[in-house]
């Protein structure tokens, strides 16, 4: 029995909630995972999993064993990584999770340069707006936007994440431009569909916060759809400068209330590269994050035409 393979099988079944989903995720037959865990249980002389036709759950022994199994696999991965990255240029596979619009606009165009500079690197990129679990989805780096929740992940700031209110010249010619935050309530605001259902924007100046409840005839969960609607004159939007910076530069959108910091909440956050603590010393991880930070610039290139 390959004990490391058996440990990986055990952890995978627990993480994915069953033999079938774990097998699909890892590209093996469920019977292969069953045989590995059966052999592991026979070697240990105890059951690790309670199995029924509907679910797989940990036994008391399995719950205790799981923590040690994770630690052993982490130690093995760290040892392998330290040896493989000991010398020479960075190389190997790096799995990334990137928000869809940000990846399409600002990371995808830069990847050919990165891969040409580091020809031994391979990238597996998942474009998703879902906050993934780095352990379960085997992600090396996730790019996250805005404020971060508290977690054990290591977070490196790659660029600021500024949001700005803007509208098209046609909308402003027809409806006028708000001169104070309270006047936003008199405008048609195109709203992002946050899971919380919040329809407010928080504006901050000189330490004073103003939270304005808004209304509008369009709400969407896609930022690019709202951007297109705003360019077409449908209303005001609150969007990150990485999405609308080029529109402002080319006159398709006009920034409003520029002397206020604005967001869905008081914390704008940043653009982050996050990774697991056991990737802290990885040359591959640091290599990509260094590249992206330099590529974005300080201030980032998309802010070149946006009022400070």
UniProtKB/TrEMBL annotation:
Location of the HTH lysR-type domain: 1-59
GO molecular function, one term: DNA-binding transcription factor activity
Keywords: DNA-binding, Transcription, Transcription regulation
InterPro entries the UniProt entry points to: LysR-type_TF_proteobact-type (IPR058163), LysR_HTH_N (IPR000847), LysR_subst-bd (IPR005119), WH-like_DNA-bd_sf (IPR036388), WH_DNA-bd_sf (IPR036390)
Source species, domain of life: Bacteria
Keyword Transcription regulation: yes
Gene3D superfamilies xref list: 3.40.190.290, Winged helix-like DNA-binding domain superfamily/Winged helix DNA-binding domain (1.10.10.10)
Keyword Transcription listed: yes
Function: Transcriptional regulator of the ttuABCDE tartrate utilization operon.
UniProt similarity note: Belongs to the LysR transcriptional regulatory family.
The protein's name in its UniProt record: HTH-type transcriptional regulator TtuA
Classification lineage: Bacteria, Pseudomonadati, Pseudomonadota, Alphaproteobacteria, Hyphomicrobiales
